[in-house]
Amino acid sequence: MLPFPVPQDLPNPAAAQQTANEIVAKIDDLLARADRLLGDDHWNSTKQQLDQLVYDYYDLTKDEVAVVEDTFNYVIPAMQPRLNNPPPKLWHPSNRADRDRYCRALERALKEWLRDETEVSASIAAHSLDLAVACVQLGNRRPSVTVQEETALQDLLPRLWSALPASVSHNVEIIPNLRVFIGDDLYLVKPRKKRFWLYSAALDDADGIAAELFSTAEARRRQG
Predict the structure, then answer these.
(1) How many of the other CB atoms lie within 10 Å of CB of 20?
(2) Degrees to nearest 5, angle at CA 55 with 52 and 60
(3) Which structural domain, as residue segments, surrounds residue 34?
(4) 141 or 223: which carries more pLDDT confidence?
(5) 3-class SS at 135?
């Protein structure tokens, strides 16, 4: 059994104790109506409330909650797919809402890494049935390419390949999360599968982008 920290071991013991009392009260309510839980709509709303209370108890940030929920809703179900069951959601194509959520999460995460005065904007530059390209713009400028139509991808990809310092495979499934700078705009070429456009994927990408930017800045500083 995993250890469960007592409120006194958490950053805010008073708030944790209050949250623990609320959790106990909801569990008592569920136990009192245990024989009526199956098919009871009350269970779904109570479960969501319990989830949020547990997040509050551990004082999780929005990003940490997103990682937990992505893991529970997408990653774990995909770890043991069943032969006769539908493919896990993680393998499904992403939709526009997934990609927009990814862009908002990427923006916010990058802003935390960069200086306060640095503006960050992320948007979908192009997409097709197989690929989608996100553009990250740093500073108060418009991206060098602004397109939303699916057919625009065939015009954008040659520009991305030509901007690469070396020849690479055009099979992005082999090199997912390809990052290419055109001028000051960073383009992320990714398969359209949902797993590449999760909120938690945006956090990972932001860490990687920030590391590359800082490494490049440090190399230029040493050369200059």
Answers:
(1) 18
(2) 135
(3) 7-79
(4) 223
(5) strand
